Structures are given as C-alpha cells and as structure tokens.
Amino acid sequence: MRSGEYIVLFLAAVPFIYYSLAILSSFQFFSAAKRGRLDKSTFAPPISNLKPVKGLDPEAYENFASLCRQDYPEYELLFCTTDATDPSVPVIQKLMRDFPDRQIRLLYSAGIDVINDKVAKLGLMAREAKYDHLVINDSDVRVTPDYLRTVIAPLQDPKVGGVTCFYVSTEDKSFVERLQSMGMISDFYAGILVAWKLDGVHYALGPTMVSTKQMVQKFGGFQVLENRPADDLLFGRLIAEQGVEMRLLSYTVQTTPDYNGVGELFAKRARWMTVMRKMRPWGHFGLLFTWGLPWSLFAVVLHPTALVAAAYLGGYFAFRILITWLIGTFGLNQKGLWKNYVLIPFWDALAFLVWLISFTRSYIRWRGVDYSLREGQLVLREDDGRTRGTAKSTS
C-alpha cells in the first residue's frame, strides 16, 4: 500500500476510538446507576409541575392524566397554552373535571412576544407557580406513578442543582418511528453519555427538566432563553455553571411519537444539526470522526480486500450493535430492541447525510417560520412577521 492509503486507513479507524469511549461511558454510567439507589422515602417537597402546550399531541389525555396519578403528597399541575382556541384546552378542562382533587391550573400566554414560545410559557408558569421546586416536562410525555418522587430525589443533596433523565417512545408503529428510536438510543444517547464521561452533565433533556425557582432566577430567569435555540441544553448548562451538579438519571419517561414521514424526521434533524453548527462549530466539525459507516465504506473502496472489509465493516457493525445493546437493553431496559438492529446503518447514513447538508444551511425553519442564528440568538428573517395578543390566565 502507498503511504496515502495508510493515512486514510488510519483516519477510518478513528471512529472506533469514539465507539470504544461510548461503550466505556455507557457501561460505567448504567452499572453505577444499578448499584446506587435513590432515597425516595422521605424527601418530598411540594412541587409545581410546569407543562407548556401547543396543539394536541397523540394520546394527549393519557399523557396529561399520568401526571394526575402520581404517588406524591403535594404538587400542582400548571398548563400553559397560547390562548383558549388551542385544541388542547378542552382536554385540559376535561382533566380538571376528572381529577377534582388535583391542583390543576391553565394559563394563557398570548401577548408575550418572543420567538421561543415554549420558553415564554415556562416564564409565565414559573412566575405563577406556588412552590419552589419545579418539574418541567413536554406535552407529549407520559410517566409512571413514581415519576415525581424519582426525579425530585437528587435535589435533597445540596450539591445537586438540576435533574434530567432519558426518554423512550411509548410504542413504535411505523418504520420512521422505529428509525427515530434506534437513532436516539444508538447515536444521540451515545453522545450524551460520552459527554457525561468527559465533561459531566452540562445539559438537560427537554422531556424532563427539574430544578428550583432560585436556580432559575440565578441564571436570569427563563427570559434569557426566550430567543435562543436548544433551550433545554442551555437550561442545564446555565444551572451547571452555578457550581452545582446537573444529575442525569437512568430513569426513563415515555413520549408519544408523531412523525408523519421520513421527510419530517429529516427536517427536524437538519434543523438541530444546523443549530449545532452555528452554536458549536468545532464540535459540529468534530462529528466527522464519529461516523463509522462512511469511513468504513471508504476504507473498503480504497483497499478492497477481505481483511479490510472484515476489520472495518465487521468492526463497525460489532461496535454499533454493542453500543445499542448497552444503552437500550442493559441500561434502559427496552425489550425486543434486537429486532431493529438492522436499522442502525440506515440511521447512520441519514445522520451523515444531514451533517453534510447542514454545511449548506444559513437559516433554520421552525414551525413554518425561517430564522437566522446570530451570536446564539434566533433572529426572524425580514420577510416574516409576528402577531401580538393579550395575556390572561384561568384556574
């Protein structure tokens, strides 16, 4: 072989270093989680559960009702929609009738003129919340009765300032939903756990974010996130920057999938990857050395021998399956995951394609509106407009 081929074969092996780190990180994280048990017996401060809502998710009533069935002594549920015309409002009102013993309030955020509507709702709910301890979850989240006890427990340690946890799908019925789940487990969570190993937890995952009013106020309140993308990631970062720990739990909540096709999945992934390129350009570029599939294929095309094919493609499949098993089966207790292992290279090919395309994007499309990213802020493109309204609340 020529020296150039040796260089390429060396570079093609770099993703295996990342895969090895992902395996080590996953094993250490979930092994430690299985050995240690949270003390959930005595620590139960009153909680305000904040739930921003926009539109009606599949199985919304059951998602909402799961939070009314908590084995927890005192908590309130705060929902916030834009106005009374939101299709989720009748469902929330039915919830109030069906669970009269629960403290449930509905707020309206119309009139708050910011780009990130979810964060505007969180700011309003945080101001209206009765209790100091805040649990935030998305509208598509479904939980078990031990949820509040589990996610609040780490805050009994004064060194812990925030908590987040993993999420999995309630049920994957379509090819796109199965593909998304495999991508989350084999790719996204692998990166999350590598970050945990190398730098600790400086992020939060949107389906569950837990902290206190004091911690939120110390980083300036939700208003500092109102025109920022990736508000969940920044929420965790701003808490960790206060010198306290963000705790990642091995506990999982469920989310109801709502992808209508590959195009929608592709668009969401492209939006996130473009945001990452703008906010963390070197980290985004560094993903080049985590894509094992294209590098392995390149190595085989460059040097098409049985040994190279076995070493690179065989190694790729072995590493990726082991990562997925460690995170999905050993760590998150997902049953029957092996049936979808065949989707791993499909996800990796899609993710690599999206990464390439993200270099061509100068703006993102979010909820039908185009935004540019300038100095970490979302800026509405000049040809788009927004409307204003009036804020009010009901209970």
Question: Could you explain how this protein is built, in words?
Answer:
With 395 residues, the protein is of the alpha/beta class. The chain has 2 domains: 3-28 and 283-357, no CATH class; 36-260, Spore Coat Polysaccharide Biosynthesis Protein SpsA, Chain A, CATH 3.90.550. The chain is 47% helix and 17% strand. The protein is built from 13 helices and 12 strands. The strands form 2 sheets. The protein has a 9-stranded mixed sheet, with helices on both faces. Strand 10 (369-374) and strand 11 form a beta hairpin. Helix 1 (3-35) packs across helix 6 and helix 1 (3-35) runs antiparallel to helix 11 (292-302). The longest helix is centred in the N-terminal third of the chain and has 33 residues, at 3-35. It starts with a helix and ends with a strand. Mean pLDDT is 90; it is low at 383-395.
Question: Can you give me a brief rundown of this structure?
Answer:
This protein has 395 residues and is of the alpha/beta class. It has helices at 3-35, 60-66, 89-98, 117-128, 147-152, 175-199, 213-218, 231-240, 262-279, 281-286, 292-302, 306-331, 344-358; strands at 47-52, 75-81, 103-108, 133-136, 141-142, 160-169, 209-212, 245-255, 363-366, 369-374, 377-380, 392-394.
Topology (SSEs and partners):
Elements: H1 3-35, E1 47-52, H2 60-66, E2 75-81, H3 89-98, E3 103-108, H4 117-128, E4 133-136, E5 141-142, H5 147-152, E6 160-169, H6 175-199, E7 209-212, H7 213-218, H8 231-240, E8 245-255, H9 262-279, H10 281-286, H11 292-302, H12 306-331, H13 344-358, E9 363-366, E10 369-374, E11 377-380, E12 392-394
